[in-house]
Amino acid sequence: MKHAPVVVTVTVVVAALFGAALFGGACAHMYGKDDLDVSVFQHNVNLRWGRLDNAALTVKPEMRGPFVAAWTARMQQLEIQDIEVGGVALSKDGDAADVSVAVTFVDKASMTVRTETVGEHWIRTDDGWLIDKPAQL
């Protein structure tokens, strides 16, 4: 019987530490710079190949419909040849990023090849990194 209180105390301490780790970590965002890099890559590869529904998954939910509609219209006017991420500038607090993207495309009206550098603004959310300002051509 002497040892019963020690076992209970150890059990309570272990449970408290587990709870603190579990719930204390929930306050901080789980997504870091590496996750941003993956999301930026996936979004721009999907955009490059015209997989607009997949590209829209990295856009804020309330902007997905307008994003797909706008890019569907753009794809009638141009054909993307290449997309290259030029740089990622993380905000000081690490919760936002500005991404520079060079888009090479054929303007179907003039049949000319052009390259434009555009910006995307990403924010860190509880669901991962999402675009709140998509690239505009």
Detailed description of the structure:
With 137 residues, this protein is of the alpha+beta class. It is built from four helices and four strands. Strand 2 and strand 3 form a beta hairpin. The longest helix is centred in the first third of the chain and has 21 residues. About 16% of the residues have low confidence.
Q: How is the topology of this model organized?
A:
Blueprint: H1 4-24, H2 33-48, H3 52-56, H4 64-77, E1 78-90, E2 96-107, E3 112-125, E4 128-133
End-to-end C-alpha gap: 76 Å
Number of strands: 4
Main sheet makeup: 4 strands, antiparallel
Integer-rounded radius of gyration? 23 Å
Strand content: 25-35%
- What is the 3D form? globular
* SSE series: HHHHEEEE
Low-confidence stretches: 6-27
Short description, anyone?
Helix content is 41%, strand content 33%.
Write out key terms for the chains shown:
137 residues; alpha+beta
